[in-house]
Amino acid sequence: MLLSSWLFVVCAIFLSPLFAGIIHRTKAFFAGRSGVPLLQSYYDLWKLLHKSAVISRTTSAVFWMGPAVSLAALLTSLLLLPFGKTPAIFSFPGSFVVFAYLLAAGRFFVMSAALDTGSSFEGMGASREAQFGIFTEIALFLALTAVALRSGSFSLSDMSTLVTAQEWTGNLAVYGLAGLVLFAVFLTENARIPVDDPNTHLELTMIHEVMVLDHGGPDLGWILAADGLKLWIFGTLVLNAVLPPALAHGGLDFLARLAALAVLAVVTGAVESVMARLRLGRIPHLLTGAVAIAVIAIGLALR
Amino acid sequence: MDHFSDLILVALMLSAVALLGTSRIAGCIRISAAQGGLLALLLLCVRGTGSPYFWALAGGIAVLKGIVFPWLLRRAIRETDVQCENIPSVNYLLSLGWAAVSFAVASWISSLLSVPFHQAASPAVAAAVFMIFSGFFLIVARRLALMQVLGFVTLENGVYAFGLALAYDFPFLVELGILLDIFVAVFVMGIMVFRIHRAFDHIDTRQMTNLKDEP
Amino acid sequence: MNALMISLGFFAAGALGAALFYQRPAWASRAGVFGAVLGSAVGLTSAILKLIQNRHEGLMIADVFPYGKMVLGLDPLTAWFLVILYALTGLAALYGYAYLQHGDGARRAGKAWFFYNALAASMALVTLARNGLFFLMAWEVMSISSWFLVTLESDKETSRRAGLTYLIATHLGGAFLIAGFLMMERSTGSFVMNVLSASPMTPSQLNLLFVLFLIGFGSKAGFVPLHVWLPEAHPAAPSHVSALMSGVMIKMGIYGLLRFISLSGTPPSWWGWCLIGVGVTSGVVGVLFALAQNRLKTLLAYSSVENMGLLTIGLGLGVLGISLHRPGLAVLGLAGCLLHALNHAIFKGLLFLAAGAVLRQTGTDVLDRLGGLAKPMRVTSLAFLTGSAAICGLPPLNGFTSELFLYFAVFSVMMSRSSALSVWMIGVMVSLVLIGGLSALCFVKAFGLGFLGGSRDPGQTEVREVPALMRWPMLALALACLAGGLAAPWLAGALKSPVSFLSGLSAAEVKAQMGPVIRAFRSLLGLSGILILVAGALAWIRSKLLAGRAVTASVTWDCAYARPTARMQYTSDSFPGMILRSLRRCLGLHVKVQKPGGIFPSAASLTTTHRDVFRESIFEPLFQGTASLLMKWRWLQQGRVQLYVLYIALTLLFLFVFNLKD
């Protein structure tokens, strides 16, 4: 059992850049382009780790601490994450609170690093990230609480591993709604359309991308790796809620879930291709809507 | 209440949330139409598909709420060519936040109610109360007269779902009568919207305060 | 008990020394600091030992004190608050020694250190007193000595104004406490604090007593809307005093409520709901107001209101647990309250000390004039960063541990599947998450604008780090933040005796209820270690990768704009702009814009002012109404001594007749 838990962590570290690659290819398919290679993120990472950096004179040590702490927090939170029936390495009641606060710690440092450049663009990004983050955190907590109430444990790992097939089909509404909310959180946290456009070229409209304008070299490498991991982590959260407890027997289940992650990447690419970006002022509405849906999920779960 | 009707109830609640968060009038009408269809499905789910009487009632609901009302309202839009954006007097953020709070209140109320009904009906009661709340809220918090019609329809859908949740068997004629009443109400309101538009060149109800006596 | 008496003796000696050398500030401050530091060191060791040994001791000071015996007592609750008090007092005193040498603070050293020691000793006596009258006396000494410290710079208008507000607030609160203690004396027959449930008190009397104490202690603890004195008094006081006031003194309000709860047997459940309501309101309102501030120390003061709200949520959950006989809720809520009291003392003390360092070195704490301090003031910045991360509840620091207790308390109810209660608990959980998110926004703003980026004030060129005596206390507190987070399993163990004392549950029961949390803390320790190791490894890899390469220093990317200035950075109003704008009216925010106009636009300005709506809409009308009402009796005041003697004689006569009638 423990072996597959570690296998999941290793997969996450080495396969997460692929997630972004699949999204790119899907978007290229919708746009009728051939698109960048599937492994482009790996090439980018390799390139960045071999480059030097240009660092602003305004900055202090916080500037390079931001990306490192953010990536470290994501890697640590990976240890709390189950993968279907595969338990997490650290499983204890209340682990989902630790999970959420670890992510918050990463975000805190990325925002500080953005403010450290003294650029008004990056200040703008940090400001938006912090304010939208309040909404996503509430939605994340409520959705996970709904699942926790059904599974009878506040451990993130048990929330996925303790669920039986019968329980899952009997409460499809709860798991479906929680998955929907988590998908909204997934899109927001990963700066995807309709919340943020990862491909935009106008700083004034960016949220996440604008915070890291000044980072380069290995620092940007950490950020890219963190982006991939974030997609992987939140994608796993969504899948844990919306997929039935056992997709297949034994090791096949693990592979099936990896395939499901790839499908989720395709879905994300499709959503990005067919939807327009929301006006900035409308983003809180989307997230509050997600909160309202999460409350409904909790109401159904409490019954 | 079986498993399937649970899902329909969830969809009904989601439609109410969507109504609170949608800014386009056309979108709101579409959601309301879907709500009517869902209600008809819920009726068949709860009462069973055995009797032709239920089929007739469900068909009536689906046709009236899913097709006729939207058609009437769309016509009202076309003829009055009002802007396609809704004018909220309570902004969408608060509306959606209110949706979350009101659902909590609704489930609290439904846990207090001790009505005679079979086992797992309480989510249905909560859903119905939530829809009634949302309907009221739409009537109070939107300025366009059209949205008030939609709020009224939502409210009525909530009341109907409440009746279904309690599994009361109304006589056929009463149910049909209610349906007709609403039809007349929506019809009259459609005409009202048109008249208001003719008199004021808009259907913003807030400006009807001009009609009151000057002090 | 003897060691505690010795520590009080040191405080007294420090105060006496400071007063004696009033004319020679250098000696006065040395005497005062020695007293405070030695007293704290002795007291801290003793209090920790007593806490671990779970000792209950009593000491009779005088048999012939008016209205009952004058008794001091020591139990785990007292010991816990003494640990908080002593932990901060000594470090803040060391810092204050250097802090007050700067500027014209030196002149007032005698006064400053006399009242500092008096404040420390009176707070210790507040926690030790077991006689109501003696408690009130210690309470008043605490209020008055802190008042003198707030108005230390009495030549400043703002200081005097803050002092006046504080004086009124503390006396109004004191009046409620006096009424409460008199009521207790009436029903029990003496001022000695005994368990009230044994006394012939009706439930409605007990309820009235609760309300009196809630207002009385709440005005000290800064519950919304009684918080209005806090954001004025804290910035006016010297920073080490702000640290002590915010870290310890306002918690005496919570101590008072806890003591009252421990005396009142099984409280009715509405007390718990009421406290939870007060806590949620204070928490959310406090952090929203903190968000709107542009002065560092005012921001920290409002954030204290927020944290007192968190403490009160924990207290309310605990009381609710006791009254509903849910041991899990009771234990976890009370433990969260107590642990957060300790944690808040450490990180808020740290933040106030760091803010004081900024104020001392730059002469201002207005965020819109600061920026770029991370390079010249590295230690201070590190301290403020640690404090900020801790107050946002980020692992692996200590703020997270107490919040985890509160979450566990909420979960313990949800797990029991009682739906009506759970609905409310979800509300509590959402407000905890909301407070967490808003405080992250608030402290990214405080740290980011104050210490990062470039300096917004062009005149600010030569800023240097503070002297070592100010650096070390900050570093010690920063380390304590980290240690508090890592040592959480053992700290939770130390909480067992006070929690068992408060909840009336056996130690074994408390231990059983805390089990899951302690397990979570153990895992957290592992995760924190991994987090620190991985972050360190990434930083090391980065430095290795960049070692052989040419790292270019350049300007921040400016989007090809020719003349970027540091004034273009985000400001304290624009950073949380979306939230401030949407809550403009609730936050009392007034924005005045003069837009640039014409073909060659010249002058333009933007002014935002922030006023406390509670002060404006509740207290000012109230006091003005009272004043105009009392003005009608102005004719009584003629200014003639003879007439006043007549008043006195008439009053005495009236009382005499009144007494005869009985």
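qc> The first strand of chain C starts at residue 57 and ends at 62.
qc> done
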